[in-house]
């Protein structure tokens, strides 16, 4: 089930992923998909910890869903939600770092032209621009994994 979801996200065109990004949660699923699929090939001892990856994706997802519920019901209080917001931001920041590291490790392992770590990180951070640079690479890398 997870594999089907991750492969489905990584086989999409940049244009399709761009429109999904307006929802917020597909952005997290995209980073999760990159981490899971590329980590299959990076099965070294220093590979990405799947439990950590699940936590880093799960917490912001739950936060986004609960924040939307609070907004729609009119019970939004910034004093109580602010620490949870910072936790979600921190989780997404770490997820971006781990995702860019997974791409770099995969490129090193396969002997491909290595991307800049900073370039990948900012490409993931500024998803609207980075998706056009990163997703075509992911499509090619997923074909290599099969």
What is the fold's blueprint, element by element?
Elements (H helix, E strand, L loop, with lengths): L1 H9 L3 H7 L4 H17 L8 H24 L4 H33 L6 H9 L1 H19 L1
Task: Note the main attributes of this structure.
mainly alpha, 81% helix
If you had to describe this structure to a student in words, what would you say it looks like?
- The protein has helices at 2-10, 14-20, 25-41, 50-73, 78-110, 117-125, 127-145.
- The protein is mainly α and 146 residues long.
- It is elongated.
- The mean pLDDT is 78.
Summarize the structure.
The protein contains seven helices and no strands.
Strand content: under 5%
Distinct helical segment count? 7
Summarize the biggest pleated sheet.
Answer: none
- Low-confidence spans: none
Structural class: mainly alpha
Terminal Cα separation, in Å? 16 Å
- How many strand elements? 0
Roughly what percent helix? over 70%
Order of helices and strands: HHHHHHH
Outline: elongated
Rg, Cα atoms, Å: 16 Å
């Amino acid at each position: 089930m997870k594999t089907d979801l991750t492969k489905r996200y990584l086989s999409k065109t940049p244009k399709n992923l761009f429109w999904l990004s307006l929802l917020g949660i597909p952005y997290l699923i995209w980073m999760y998909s990159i981490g899971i699929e590329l980590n299959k090939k990076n099965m070294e001892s220093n590979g990405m910890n799947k439990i950590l990856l699940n936590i880093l994706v799960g917490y912001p997802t739950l936060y986004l869903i609960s924040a939307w519920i609070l907004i729609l019901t009119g019970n939004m209080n910034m004093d109580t939600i602010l620490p949870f917001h910072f936790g979600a931001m921190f989780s997404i920041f770490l997820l971006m770092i781990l995702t860019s590291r997974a791409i770099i490790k995969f490129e090193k392992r396969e002997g491909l032209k290595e991307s800049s770590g900073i370039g990948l990180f900012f490409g993931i951070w500024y998803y609207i621009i980075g998706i056009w640079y990163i997703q075509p690479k992911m499509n090619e890398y997923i074909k290599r994994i099969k």
